[in-house]
Amino acid sequence: MEGEYEVCIREGERVYLLLEDGKDYLIRVEKDKVFGTHLGGIAFNEIIGKRFGELVLTTSGRKAFLLQPGIVDNLFHMKRRTQIVYPKDLGFIVLMLDVKEGDRVIDVGLGSGAMCGALARLVGDGGKVYAYERREEFIKVAVENLSIWGVLERVEIKNKDIKDGFEEENIDALFLDVPQPWDYLEVCWRALRGGGRIGIVSPTTPQVVAVLEKLKTLPFIQVEVWESLFRKYKPNPIAFRPYDRMVAHTTYMIFARKVFSENP
């Protein structure tokens, strides 16, 4: 029977609120409180007990749909202190790194926790993400975000510089998001298992060239450089066309795999 096993929204639950005009919010439901929007207020008591997928009306009679927040919703509404890896790049990166249940992954440049959260979601309870970040103020924000997303227990955060290497070895995949990644490729090689994958993001071409030059001196193969360009379309069957603006260049993505040789 439809809805028989559906769980109703409870007090304290996070809800992705989508208004009829497309404006969205990510809220936490609190009893007896009202959430104000440009289309009118929404009483949280009206949300409690409803199912995801249902709607409520604002005080001005406008529709608001109640949805479960997904990973992209979390990323766009997260608290941040740094630029995040954009979802169009993030999805490709985790596929190219082949991150899966039970993997052990290193995330360098934790920032606000966007990529770390995506990796932790994929490794499952049997895996682990080791996140390295030098700045304590970023770690504080990341911990809050990872806790909200329910994946903090899958992450081990280390407040340290990686110039002297990693505490882990035989890592399945490594993600590197730092200003000068070429300075750390040797220690990354040491941390990876044979055949392990590395992904590096760099926003400018001089950075990419420096990374490629360094990769040539180390036992890495299958070196690839990618850029993702996505264009969103207006879902109007009568006037179907692209949106007037798009997120174009965000970063270059460099990938490689570790092999063994006499070097380093």
From TrEMBL:
Entries under PROSITE patterns matching the protein: SAM_TRM61
Tell me what reaction this enzyme catalyses.
Answer: adenosine(58) in tRNA + S-adenosyl-L-methionine = N(1)-methyladenosine(58) in tRNA + S-adenosyl-L-homocysteine + H(+)
Q: Which InterPro entries match?
A: SAM-dependent_MTases_sf, TRM61_C, tRNA_MeTrfase_Gcd14
Which sequence ranges are marked TM in the entry?
A: none
Q: Which domain of life is it from?
A: Bacteria
Q: Does the keyword Ubl conjugation apply?
A: no
Show the Pfam families listed in the entry: GCD14 (PF08704), TrmI-like_N (PF14801)
Provide the tRNA (adenine(58)-N(1))-methyltransferase catalytic subunit TRM61 C-terminal domain boundaries.
77-234
What Enzyme Commission number(s) appear in the record?
2.1.1.220
Keywords in alphabetical order: Methyltransferase, S-adenosyl-L-methionine, Transferase, tRNA processing
> Is-annotated flag, keyword Iron?
no
Quote the subunit structure annotation: Homotetramer composed of a dimer of dimers.
Quote the function comment for this protein: Catalyzes the S-adenosyl-L-methionine-dependent formation of N(1)-methyladenine at position 58 (m1A58) in tRNA.
Which PANTHER family does the entry mention? TRNA (ADENINE(58)-N(1))-METHYLTRANSFERASE, TRNA (ADENINE(58)-N(1))-METHYLTRANSFERASE, MITOCHONDRIAL
The record's family statement is:
Belongs to the class I-like SAM-binding methyltransferase superfamily. TRM61 family.
Q: What is this protein called?
A: tRNA (adenine(58)-N(1))-methyltransferase TrmI
Species for this entry: Thermatribacter velox
